[in-house]
Amino acid sequence: MADGPRWVTFDCYGTLIDWNAGLRSELARIFGETEADRLLQRYHAIEPVVQSDDPSLGYREVMAEVLARLAAEEGLDLSPEERDALGRSLPSWPVFDEVPDALAAARERGWSLGILSNTDRGFIDASMERIGVPFELAIVASEIGSYKPDRGHWDAFFERTGAQPSLHVHVGASVYHDIRPAGELGMRSIWINRLGEEADVAPARELPDLSRLAETLDELVRRPG
To answer: Which of 35, 157, 202, 204 is the S-S candidate for 188 at Cβ 3.0 to 4.6 Å?
Structure first.
């Protein structure tokens, strides 16, 4: 077994923070409750396009652009104040109930924790404070000029930490952003399949939430000694 710390990296929004709940709440407020579920799916479709078109955009600008496109599709005149509605609300988006205890348990077993997020420093700092468990580092898209599923986050992680690939596991809820690219890069991954979806990928493990995170990590990478 290689020497060095065991690392687990996480996607944040959708994996640790309830991204869908926070986003849907704002869409319901702006467009109406009856339209929220439909527009949430449209948001999922439009956001990767905006990120791919201009990876230099900060995540606040990405959310504002996606919301503006949704409003245009719906024929809604979006006020300048509402354009940043998603960015204003994101720091208050809720943490999944099991997450703080699951992360604390992983730390107790000796795992170093990192976040690889398609957002900005201010957002991730606010979300880490809500989670309430220390992380060794967080790498955000706005500081590396790259959005997942591109490999920039993982390249930056290994460069900054010197982590051994054999001692690393990546955890995410999105097949598109996290699980598929992790597999293509030869990394172990845990898919947090909260929605009971089907996918044509083969992560090292699949879990419905993070309740069994610590023991699953230990199954994949044994403790040294």
So the answer is: 204
Q: Where are the domains of the chain?
A: 6-17+94-220, 19-91
**Residue in the block written with tokens 């590396």:** 144
Q: 115, exposed or middle or buried, with CB in 10 Å at 0-12, 13-18, 19+?
A: buried
Point out the catalytic residue in the list 3, 11, 120, 178.
Answer: 11
> Which 3 state secondary structure label does DSSP give 149?
coil
Q: How far apart are CA 147 and CA 225, in angstroms?
A: 37
Was domain 6-17+94-220 assigned CATH 3.40.50.1000? yes
Contacts of residue 57, Cβ cutoff 8 Å, sequence gap at least 6: 50, 51, 65
Task: Judge whether 92 and 22 are in contact, CB under 8 Å.
Answer: yes
Please state the separation of Cα 87 from the chain's center in Å: 16
Architecture of domain 19-91: Orthogonal Bundle (1.10)
Question: Would the pTM of this model clear 0.85, i.e. be above it?
Answer: yes
Secondary structure E strands in 173-220: 188-192, 205-207
Q: Is 97 a catalytic residue?
A: no
pLDDT digits (tens, 9 = 90+) for 127-185: 999 999 999 999 999 999 999 999 999 999 999 999 999 999 999 999 999 999 999 99
- Tens-digit pLDDT profile for residues 44-102: 999 999 999 998 888 999 999 999 999 999 999 998 889 999 999 999 999 999 999 99
Token code pair at residue 124: 């991730």
